[in-house]
UniProtKB/TrEMBL annotation:
One of its GO terms (molecular function) is DNA-binding transcription factor activity. InterPro entries: Homeodomain-like_sf, HTH_AraC, HTH_AraC-typ_CS, PchR_regulatory_protein, Tscrpt_reg_AraC-type_HTH. Residues 198-296 form the HTH araC/xylS-type domain. This is HTH araC/xylS-type domain-containing protein. Keywords: DNA-binding, Transcription, Transcription regulation. It comes from Chryseobacterium culicis.
Length: 297
């Protein structure tokens, strides 16, 4: 068991969420910690460990180097452990202890990146092995992006088992690694950090097919939804709702020409739970119903 408890309590949620030959995912959540409670996290031999800190003021003491760190909520690290290692994590002042550990075997990452393919791949693996992804530009632990929050939420909420779960988990881990590499490739953090409207737009571009609203965007960005609406409109001269609708209609217009796809399926693909709502929006946008436009093609 990768996460052991120093004390047992009824208000602790922890355990193995997923395990395969190459990947292990463990969730730790203690709802009522005290000064004596510490979580013992095991890093396997020759493994990469992604740690997402989901509560505030988490102390981490690594036994291999005797170093202690303090992490804020929504920070993360990617740490390589050449040998089996134990770390202790705890909070102070009755703070909740909550973090997600994703452990990945070295050989899996090696095969995924294939450092023998080119120099860029080799440099990425070398940076990972030397733990250059723990601190952003060697100053502070990196913050989770909106996309990272979404992926973590999807991993925690996924319920299928078997091969579907394995494929889903591997796809999400690859996406997380891509986001991490992109974040660390930014040469100037201050200049390259996107402004709030750009973050909102990117979030919408990747999630408009779902039933998203300003409230959800605000939750993941950590900003009041009214400010989000105001800044987005000031930048792009349109509302969030109208922008989402435009994206959905552009996709619907593209799909409607394929007569092998049912109109109901197009509606779902474009983020509409009910066909009548999709038809109403389509007709308002293009002046004709989806059926009429399809029949005239």
């Amino acid at each position: 068991m990768a996460v052991k408890m120093c004390c047992m309590r009824s208000q602790s949620k922890n355990g193995l969420l997923f395990r395969s030959e190459d990947i292990k995912i463990i969730m730790q959540e203690d709802l009522c910690p005290d000064q004596t409670f510490k979580s013992h996290m095991l890093e396997g031999k020759s493994s990469f460990n992604l740690l997402f800190f989901l509560s505030n003021a988490i102390n981490l003491e690594a036994h291999d180097c005797g170093t202690q760190f303090l992490f804020k909520k929504n920070q993360y690290i990617l740490h390589y452990s050449p040998k089996e290692n134990v770390a202790e994590l705890w909070t102070e002042n009755q703070e909740i202890l909550k973090y997600l550990q994703i452990q990945i075997n070295y050989q899996y990452i090696f095969n995924l990146i294939n450092p023998e393919h080119n120099r860029e791949n080799a440099e990425i693996l070398e940076n990972m092995i030397h733990n250059n992804f723990i601190f952003l530009h060697k100053e502070t632990p990196p913050d989770m992006t909106v996309e990272m929050h979404m992926i973590v939420k999807e991993i925690l909420g996924y319920t299928k088992k078997g091969i579907m779960q394995k494929l889903f988990i591997e796809a999400k881990i690859i996406k997380l690694l891509i986001l991490i590499f992109e974040q660390f490739n930014e040469k100037n953090t201050l200049e390259s950090t996107p402004k709030t409207p750009e973050i909102i737009r990117k979030f919408i571009d990747e999630n408009y097919h779902r039933n998203i609203k300003a409230e959800e965007i605000g939750k993941y960005i950590g900003m009041n939804q009214n400010i989000i609406r105001k800044e987005f409109k000031a930048q792009y001269h349109t509302t969030i709702a109208h922008y989402i609708s435009e994206l959905r209609m552009l996709k619907a217009r593209k799909l409607i020409t394929d007569k092998e796809i049912m109109i109901k399926e197009i509606a779902i693909e474009c983020g509409y739970e009910y066909l009548q709502n999709f038809t109403r929006a389509f007709k308002k946008k293009f002046g004709v119903s989806p059926e009429s436009l399809r029949n005239n093609k």
